[in-house]
Amino acid sequence: MKSLRTIVILNMILLISAGQAGAGNIAIKGSTTVLPVAQKIAEEFMKENPDIKISISGGGSGEGIKAIIDSTTDIADSSRFLAQKEVDLAVSKGVYPVPFAVAYDCIVPVVHPGNPVKSLTLDQLKAIYKGEIKNWKEVGGGDQKIVVISRDTSSGTFEVWEEKVMKKERVYPGAMMQASSGAIVQAVSNNKNALSYIGIGYLTANVKALTVNNVKGSEETTLNGTYPISRALYMFTKGWPAGDVGKFINYAVHPTKGQKLVKAAGFVPLY
Amino acid sequence: MNLNRRWIEKGMQWGLFLTAFASISVLVMIAFFLFTEGLPIFKKVSLKAFLFGQYWYPTADPTDFGIFPLIVASLAVTLLSALIAVPLGVMTAIYLAEVASFRVREIVKPVVEMLAALPSVVIGFFGMVVMAPLLQNTFELATGLNLFNAALMLAFMAVPTICSISEDAIYSVPNNLREASLALGATHWETIIRVVLPASISGISTAVILGMSRSIGETMVVLMVAGGSAMVPAALFDPVRPMPASIAAEMAEAPFRGDHYHALFATGMVLFGFTLLFNIIADIIANKYRQVGEATL
């Protein structure tokens, strides 16, 4: 956090000095889920366009959208579409945020490779995370207690889970918590009774992905909309993007440029 | 010449004063920052609901900011680790100060202190990758990431502190006390138990409490191996989430100056309160039972 802030401040200083040289600056702000994608794309983009400086900060989707409405940023990262309130506020200020889907987030439930269970329904997942189903035998597995592992409540991954699986109901307090997708993989691969969830980019051979409602989470099922635990990630621009911002958005959605980096960051690319 | 000397003297005094003042002012500023960022949460929840609330749902709708399970987790982990670390640390100290030969002492003491040099993330990783599967398979547990594992790892970290300070305390017991005891016909063992330990009890107590205060504030280890369930533990092998783990996991992405952010700082205040309490207790013990000369025994 602190180092991030330092980077942002350093970027600001760079921006100011670069601004004097007459080059373009782009400010990006918003969702921490989109942050790694934006960061990767920005790094490569700046290599190709050394005269354009990009500064990126997090803060959450709401902060980013607020910043675009207040015209304090050029691009807002968001892991959700605009809320009606935000649309009204934007219109009243004469700002028209334009959405660009830049990637898809696909979250898959994972278990230990030795677990016989292959598939769970959304309702079963919800009941398990609410603490109503406690034993694997209730969902077709062995007679073992289910060790429920969740992500910390601040993470974007948890946000998707809360929205698509829990439908805003609470994960029961007995669920364990890990602070990163890497830690989840570590914990699940070491525990044959564990159930957890990670972004599709973090899948390894040490954990087994479950199908949800009999749909396998993959790039294909995410893009055709059949896989239920997925969502689009957006970049919003203020009006139709032009100049440097337009160049950046074009780069981000370019199949062999930005979208390649999206995949490298653990997300599902658009094509 | 004379004037010059006086100036240097004055300059030295002020220089040292400012140095001392700098570290104090940093502490005061951190505490001030902690409280200004933490107190706003009490506009939303009462102090009682915050401290004794059973549910911690900072991002749900509606939110719940009860840190009781986190406080219990912190205390449980700390006490259990003290139960493991105190006998280990104190007995090692007795061995080093009273029994071991000079050469053994010169080798073993730095090695024990080296334990303190292990980064906590390494200990946490060890707990996660080695200890957790071991515990899980040995005791047929649901999970190896739990209260006991965390306490064990924290004990590793507290042993060097406890051992090193206790050893210094035991070592500094005046030799003529030992000689008098032996001269009265006491054995080596009786001398250690009846004379040396009582004489150094204040130093040992300080060591124990400083070790515990290190345990309660330790973050990385509990984040990695405690399991993270925000629930009051019912058993030794239940997963728990101590306060520092919650702060570390959630702070990075809590919206700046939102309720969640303030609640995490308020949790930090509670944690600060506990470590302060431990340090004050250590200080009181050190002063109250301070050994003034040899006659006080």
Q: What attributes characterize this protein structure?
A:
A: alpha/beta, D-Maltodextrin-Binding Protein, domain 2, 2 domains, nine-stranded mixed sheet, two-stranded parallel sheet, 11 strands, B: 297 residues, mainly alpha, MetI-like fold, two-stranded antiparallel sheet, 74% helix, globular
What can you tell me about this protein's structure?
The complex is a heterodimer of chains A (about 270) and B (about 300). Chain A has two domains: about 1-105 and about 230-265, D-Maltodextrin-Binding Protein, domain 2 (3-Layer(aba) Sandwich), CATH 3.40.190; about 105-225, Periplasmic binding protein-like II (D-Maltodextrin-Binding Protein, domain 2), CATH 3.40.190.10. Mean pLDDT of chain A is about 85; it is low at about 10-20. In chain A, strands 1, 2, 3, 4, 6, 7, 8, 9 and 11 form a nine-stranded mixed β-sheet that branches. Chain A has a two-stranded parallel sheet with strand order 5-10. With about 270 residues, chain A is an alpha/beta fold. Chain A is built from ten helices and eleven strands. Chain B has two domains: about 1-45; about 45-295, Orthogonal Bundle (MetI-like fold), CATH 1.10.3720. Chain B contains twelve helices and two strands; from the N terminus they run ααββαααααααααα. The interface between A and B is medium-sized, with 32 and 38 residues.
Give a brief outline of the structure.
The complex is a heterodimer of chains A (271) and B (297). Chain A is of the alpha/beta class and 271 residues long.
Q: What global shape of chain B is seen?
A: globular
Largest interface: A-B, 32 and 38 residues
Contiguous helical run count of chain B: 12
Indicate the mean pLDDT of chain B. Answer: 88
What's the CATH C level of the largest domain in chain B? Mainly Alpha
What can be said about the biggest beta sheet of chain B?
2 strands, antiparallel
Summed over residues and divided by their number, the pLDDT of chain A gives a mean of: 85
Rg from Cα of chain A: 20 Å
Provide the gyration radius of chain B in Å: 23 Å
Order of helices and strands of chain A: HEHEHEHEEHEHEHEEEHEHH
Oligomer: heterodimer
Distance between the termini of chain B: 51 Å
Helix content of chain A: 25-40%
What portion of the residues of chain B fall into strands of 2 or more residues?
A: under 5%
- Strand order within the widest sheet of chain B? 1-2
- Estimated share of beta-strand residues of chain A: 15-25%
User: What is the level 1 CATH name of the largest domain in chain A?
Assistant: Alpha Beta
Determine the structural class of chain B based on helices, strands and strand pairing: mainly alpha
The counted number of beta strands of chain A is 11
Helix-and-strand structural type of chain A: alpha/beta
The residue ranges of chain B in which pLDDT falls below 50 over 5 or more consecutive positions are none
